[in-house]
Automatic annotation (TrEMBL):
Signal peptide: none annotated. PANTHER family: DNA REPLICATION COMPLEX GINS PROTEIN PSF3 (PTHR22768). It comes from Durusdinium trenchii. Pfam families: PSF3_N. This is DNA replication complex GINS protein PSF3 N-terminal domain-containing protein. Residues 7-62 form the DNA replication complex GINS protein PSF3 N-terminal domain.
Length: 211
């Protein structure tokens, strides 16, 4: 996983993820966090109140021991179990475009080391699957001169439609590298290596060939 960058627009967008917090005590002036109901909002956020806020705000409050943070539903136990058994089947892109970035931030903030380990292992496994798939597509492209390219399986199509923003960038980079390699190899006029006419064939080989 890439290191966090304060100026990275993707990091900023990832921290817009909504999370649920529960206050430990009254928060002065925090009444604006209550959802809009049409009625006048109280000035302060009351003790024990549960409200939805973006991660960047929840992070500040958690570090001040003012609130308790609940993991979003996209990181529930069922999803964690699936990530452990077969991460490729998880449609993470539909859950969040920045699933791994958000998950690791939440795991670090809440000291949830189990979630951190699951996310790292799932990311590595999905990375291997993605690179294998990209390599397989390259092999299919190279063989397209000799035979028709087989259509991708339904499982592969589903996997590609489940990618997060980071995984899409990696997949796009792998395909671009493959295209550049194809253009480079296509610049050669000769593909078949032939024996040099300068090097003389040893005598014992000529004799064996004559026999």
């Amino acid at each position: 996983m890439p290191c966090a960058d304060y100026w990275d627009i993707d990091e900023i967008l990832a921290e817009e993820q909504d999370v649920v917090i529960k206050t430990f005590h009254d928060v002065a002036g925090g009444g604006f966090l209550y959802p809009c109901t049409g009625a006048a909002k109280p000035r302060d956020l009351k003790e024990g109140a549960k409200v939805v806020v973006p991660y960047w705000l929840a992070q500040k409050l958690v570090r001040r021991n003012a609130v308790e943070l609940d993991l979003p539903v996209i990181f529930d136990e069922a999803t964690q179990e699936t990530l452990q058994t077969d991460p490729a089947v998880c449609r993470l892109g539909e859950k969040s475009r920045y699933y791994f970035e958000v998950g690791l931030k939440l795991a670090y903030l809440t000291k949830n080391f189990k979630l951190q380990e699951i996310l790292v292992n799932a990311y590595i496994q999905r990375y291997h699957d993605l690179m294998t798939l990209s390599s397989g597509m390259g092999e299919a492209n190279r063989s397209s001169i000799r035979k028709a390219v087989p259509s991708p399986s339904n499982a592969k199509s589903q996997f590609l439609s489940s990618l997060t923003a980071l995984e899409e960038d990696m997949h796009r980079g792998a395909r671009e590298a493959e295209d550049q390699y194809q253009r480079w190899t296509g610049s050669f006029s000769c593909w078949q290596l032939e024996p040099s006419h300068i090097a003389e064939v040893p005598a014992f080989k000529r004799a064996r060939a004559g026999a």
